[in-house]
Write a structure and sequence with these properties.
By secondary structure, the chain is α/β, with parallel strands linked by helices. The chain has three domains: about 110 residues, Tetrapyrrole methylase, N-terminal domain (Cobalt-precorrin-4 Transmethylase, domain 1, 3-Layer(aba) Sandwich); about 100 residues, 2-Layer Sandwich (Methyltransferase, Cobalt-precorrin-4 Transmethylase, Domain 2), CATH 3.30.950.10; about 40 residues, no CATH class. About 40% of the residues lie in helices and about 15% in strands. The strands form two sheets. It has a five-stranded parallel β-sheet, sandwiched between helices. It has a five-stranded mixed β-sheet with strand order 6-7-10-8-9, sandwiched between helices. α3 runs parallel beside α4, α9 crosses α10 and α10 crosses α11. The termini are far apart.
């Protein structure tokens, strides 16, 4: 009989942010697969949980997933945890979860903290629809290209960023998302938690007075539906639809209707680029 894989969410900072169900599962499983066993021991020792640990980090994710799969196939129950939050969300875990599903191993979610959802709820921005982006590309040109593509998205967007790149990211956003409302959340649930709200320029100004350190989450509002967008941005969406197999007329009609711009002008402009 096959074992069960439990996807267990753990605190993103404050060790009290863990469910009773998560603690019970961690105490009952045969083995715990942890992203970093040293960091996970802090949580496990705090709650007196002593179980065999298997390290499961991104560089060795596939080989470690195969090792854990052998345990599951042998009937052992495994709790998958990351350093903080929910495994598989900008953390290792997705390979093992996919492998377990394909192999017919039962997979059970033990929900709990998620940094992106916590930051969204604090932001004061629309929460009915949102897009989770995670980390942007490190190289500036790739980052700017991705932000330009996202600039036409009407949904609230959530980004993660490291402290040594946060200023670079915000400067790019200031140029591409001018005037957009945003919230920058630092060290969520920890002692030095801080939330900066305003437009990107306001947040950059506030950072001049802050120590830049820790983990950052940026939540930024999407494009307003009545906001006219530059033709170049509309063309990006047209080309995206063309790559998905839409005919040119249909792609242009969809984009023009959505953004209230001239179909003829957009169609003519789309002919100037070979896709």
């Amino acid at each position: 009989m096959k074992g069960t894989l439990y996807i267990v969410s753990t605190p993103i900072g404050n060790l009290e942010d863990i469910t009773l169900r998560a603690l019970r599962v961690l105490k009952q499983v045969d083995v715990i697969a942890a992203e970093d066993t040293r960091r996970s021991l802090k949580l496990l020792n705090h709650y007196g949980i002593k179980k065999p640990l298997v390290s499961y980090w991104k560089e060795k994710e596939r080989s470690k997933a195969e090792e854990i799969m052998r345990r599951l196939q042998a009937g052992e129950s495994v709790a998958l945890i990351s350093d903080a939050g929910t495994p598989g969300i900008s953390d290792p875990g997705s390979i093992l979860i996919k492998m377990s599903i394909e192999e017919g191993v039962p997979v059970i979610s033990i929900p709990g903290p998620s940094a992106c959802i916590a930051a969204l709820s604090l932001s004061g921005l629309p929460t009915d629809q949102f897009t989770f982006i995670g980390f942007l590309p490190v190289k500036q040109r790739q980052r700017q290209k991705m932000l330009a593509e996202l600039s036409i998205d009407t949904k609230t967007m959530i980004f993660y960023e490291a402290p040594h790149r946060i200023i670079e990211m915000l400067l790019d956003m200031e140029a591409i998302f001018p005037g957009r409302r945003a919230a920058l959340v630092k060290e969520l649930t920890k002692m030095h938690e801080e939330v900066l709200r305003g437009n990107i320029s306001d947040i950059l100004g506030s950072l001049d007075k802050s120590i830049i350190a820790g983990e950052y989450i940026l939540v930024i509002e999407g494009r307003k539906r009545n906001e006219r967008i530059p033709t170049q941005d509309a063309l990006i969406e047209v080309y995206s639809l063309l790559k998905k197999g839409f005919g040119r007329k249909e792609a242009v009609k969809r984009v023009a209707d959505q953004y209230g711009i001239s179909k003829k002008d957009l169609y003519d402009s789309s002919l100037n680029k070979i896709t």
